[in-house]
Amino acid sequence: MLVSHARIRGQRDSSTFALHKGAKRHLLIWDESLITADVQVLTWLDVKSAVERLLPELHDSCLAHWLRDALLAMQADLDAQRMGVKPQPIDLRGSLDLDEIQALACQLRSGGSPLRVAAVKAVRQLTKLATHPISMALTGNGMTGDGLIRYTVAVPAELDNIAVLDASYPIRELTHNHAILDGTTSAMRTCKRYDRVSVRQLCLATGRTTLQTHPDRLKEMVSALAASVADIPMDEAILIFTFKGDDDATLLAKVRKELGERGVDLEARLFNGRARINWLTWGNETSLSEYSHCQHILLGGVLRRSPLDLSASVAGREDDLCYRPTSEQLRAIQLSEVAHCVLQAMNRGSCRNVDEDGMAHAMSLTVLADIKGLHEALAESLPGIVWKIVPDLKLGPLTQSLSARIKAHLLTQPASVNRLSIRSIKAGVDVPADRQTWRDALTFALVFVRLQDPSQTWQQAGQSVIRSIR
């Protein structure tokens, strides 16, 4: 029987899937990653900040008393764990009726400042989580990484004779369970090759929080996206992954706006009428196949799950609220989840198509993210792939100034000039610099020219640069 999460989740009676004519099924085929539990988490920072913000307006109410007691209980457990005591389930219900507490929390006045809105949301979430025992988790990431966890088993334990069909299974440690045997053979791992797929990883700081809170980092990422788009022929399709951001897709809108301001035609069409530039946000990397015509995929950041969320998922996998992975295990799981996202995202494009000899169709992948170990995590799943890592180069004042002068020099060349020697450029800008500074400045100047005028491209060829007009 072929099953998926969509069919299993939420089913109270699993006999439909576990039994056939009253007997246990010989085999279930699971066509996606097998995640056995749903998790809920709330960071200690969110809880503490929310309670402290709302207590003054709650006065001496029943909800205020419950929140104070809950805060003390959670703080005491975190302190005990820091002293070496093993995690224990915490019952926050006390002697109060939680239905009443939840009702009071729902009556909290909505609106106010963004901080108050967030506080009300956190308190309401806390009252819902407290209906069952929870556990506090220390992840080593301070108040933003520590917090309370809870899980709900989503896949019944009796479904134990399962074959998992999932390309991410070999690399995604979170799906590995003592009840599931890895039947992936070496032949399976190498049946598809990626010799015609190239990856360029630019080591930029592009986490979702970073992009939302640091405008300079957002502009840096968009500049790299624009440069990558400029290098792609106008008749080839592109798929860009990035973060949706807030509920109103603010971050995605900012990325699109910044790209448009850099001269990228977001409405361009291919000869067949399809959009040249296509968009997906993280969360859609596993479910769509309609972009398999895209020969180029650009990842504007990669989704990273929080350590707290992963700790809850591991506890759910082990079906033990107090189970904790070591710091090293947690880092390995986090990397494997990132690798899973990249593998799934790249297979939305043309490399998902395979020739008769098992060779993936040609495609380029650009990863804009500083994720150490990503190539190594994916190596076995992508035999034959060509991977290049570009470090995050920071331009010093002299390099910046020199790069700007070179860019201006190139942009002012008459249309009849299509080749310039490096020596003539040095003479034209008249800025003394050592060899490495010159190399860096020239490299970035060629990129900046494409950003300012996508219709022309200057490329270095030996001791000269050559212009091609589009």
Total strands: the figure is 17
Query: Whole-number radius of gyration?
Result: 27 Å
Give the averaged pLDDT, no decimals. 83
Structural class call reads: alpha/beta
Distance between the termini: 54 Å
Shape: globular
Strand content: 15-25%
Q: Any idea what the CATH architecture of the largest domain is? A: 3-Layer(aba) Sandwich
CATH superfamily of the largest domain: P-loop containing nucleotide triphosphate hydrolases
Number of helical elements? 16
> What strand line-up does the widest sheet have?
11-10-12-13-9-14
Low-confidence stretches: none
Helix content: 25-40%
- For the record, the CATH class of the largest domain is Alpha Beta
The major beta sheet can be summarized as: 6 strands, parallel
List keywords for this structure.
470 residues, alpha/beta, Rossmann fold, 4 domains, 6-stranded parallel β-sheet, 3-stranded parallel β-sheet, 16 helices, 16% strand, globular
